[in-house]
Amino acid sequence: MGGEKLSKNKYAVACSIIGSIISILMGYDTGVMSGAMLFIKEDLKTNDTQVEVLAGILNVCALAGALTAGRVSDQIGRRLTISLAASIFLAGSILMGLAPNFATLLAGRCVAGVGVGYALMIAPVYAAEIASAETRGSLTFGILIGYVSNYLLAKLPLVYGWRAMLGFGALPSAILAVAVLAMPESPRWLVVQGRDGEALAVLRRFCDDAESRLAEITKAAGGDVSTAADAHKKGVWREMFLRPTPTVRRIVVAALGVHFFEHLTGIEAVVLYSPRIFHAAGIVTRDEVLTATIGVTVTKTTFILVAILLIDRVGRRPLYLSSLAGIVASLSCLGIGLTVIEHSTLAHHTPPMWVVILAIATVFTFVASFSIGAGPITWAYSSEVYPLRLRAQGASVGVAINRVMNAAVSMTFVSLYKAITIVGPVVAAVFFYLFCPETQGRPLEEIEEVFEQSWLERRRRTSATAAELMMA
């Protein structure tokens, strides 16, 4: 029996990993663009404005994908939505890889952006519905692959280097297009469609108590299967935004809020423009910049792995709030370091060594702090708090907000200390403390109950319980 259970767990993990390949598309693109921009500017003679537009336009175009992905996912299923996202990104990657000029490159990046919008919506939803939370941190591996390919492909002739970097993104898309055929559909989506027999068959491949799990999912979906399917077709957006119940309103505020505040921490500026930050700190050659950038991503990967190990042991809230405390400290020191470096440069002086070391070190501590909490928890939390009937389209709106914030930071970046301050993470900490209750250890079908009480009601209840314990 133990061996059979282990086999089922491995199968669930394998499906989650395959589904998370779609996350690599966004991670790869983010990582590879930071290095490719160095070569694109030199090869295509682009100016700073064009580089900033190229960096941020993917996020703008991802809005189109994100805002339609939820509805498409509800109609055709999670598995086919993954395949569609991969196909769109494949077309964009090929177009970017063959681009003879800036206009074609920009068009390819827009197409890829639509695929990214789909990818960012469907990957965490599929993971939440088919596997455990321990597999939801795969996004960072895509960023690592992107940065490593920067370093390896930088040795190619200039005209081919950046094209190979961007075109290489077609590889995971092609792999996924084949691998997705072996993946099961989300049993929760099958329940909403009234296909309980198929849902039961999938659940039997993952768990021993398939019948009871199916009953729980059906109950959470809204009663009997046909009622759930009819209710789902009647206007999810109306239930979320026009006539939400107090519980649904709290869920929507929490899920969308974490996406809004994720980029106010400044992570996109650090990841996308880390080569420029290192250049300002005195790391000037291409190999040095790309090596340092790989170091940033190794740090990011290491600490998100730590987060995966801790998230179900210590909970979402302690990790998230500790993460923001580290971000505030890192930003304060980084802002000081870059300000001193800029003033020294303007005065034609060599920056003091301690300032250079401070600037470089705080880039790493910032990335480590973000990766252990604010980054992975944003995606895990926002995909798990919605009830089944709202999950796909709720996640779709969250991704749209995430991309708007991402584009705003990417396209308006001038220098790190001007683009971001400690205000963002401080406000994010207050928001998460007040509006995001702990979901640790809760099955998806029970999380809605966590939001039935407001923060004030939960606070009063906790205080009353503590008082009773003291009196006893």
Any overview of this molecule?
- The protein has two domains: 1-183, Up-down Bundle (Growth Hormone, Chain: A); 235-472, Up-down Bundle (Growth Hormone, Chain: A), CATH 1.20.1250.
- The chain contains 23 helices and no strands.
- The protein has helices at residues 2-44, 48-76, 78-97, 102-130, 139-153, 158-167, 170-179, 187-192, 196-206, 210-222, 225-232, 236-242, 246-262, 267-272, 274-280, 286-314, 316-346, 353-384, 388-411, 416-419, 423-435, 447-450, 455-471.
- Mean pLDDT is 79; it is low at 224-229.
- Residues 15-440 form the Major facilitator superfamily (MFS) profile domain.
Number of domains: 2
Radius of gyration: 23 Å
> What is the CATH superfamily classification of the largest domain?
MFS general substrate transporter like domains
* Cα shape: globular
Low-confidence runs:
224-229
Distance between the termini: 44 Å
How is the main sheet built?
A: none
Round the mean pLDDT to the nearest integer and report it: 79
Structural class by SSE content: mainly alpha
Q: What helical percentage do the residues reach?
A: over 70%
Q: What order do the SSEs take from the amino end to the carboxyl end, as H and E?
A: HHHHHHHHHHHHHHHHHHHHHHH
The CATH architecture of the largest domain comes to Up-down Bundle
Throw out a few tags for this protein:
472 residues; mainly alpha; Growth Hormone, Chain: A; 2 domains; 23 helices
Describe how the helices and strands are arranged.
Layout: H1 2-44, H2 48-76, H3 78-97, H4 102-130, H5 139-153, H6 158-167, H7 170-179, H8 187-192, H9 196-206, H10 210-222, H11 225-232, H12 236-242, H13 246-262, H14 267-272, H15 274-280, H16 286-314, H17 316-346, H18 353-384, H19 388-411, H20 416-419, H21 423-435, H22 447-450, H23 455-471
Helix pairs in contact: 1-4, 1-5, 1-6, 1-7, 2-3, 2-4, 2-19, 3-4, 3-6, 3-7, 4-18, 4-19, 5-6, 5-16, 9-10, 10-11, 12-19, 13-18, 13-19, 13-21, 15-16, 16-17, 16-18, 17-18, 17-21
GO cellular component, one term: membrane
GO molecular function: symporter activity
Protein name: Major facilitator superfamily (MFS) profile domain-containing protein
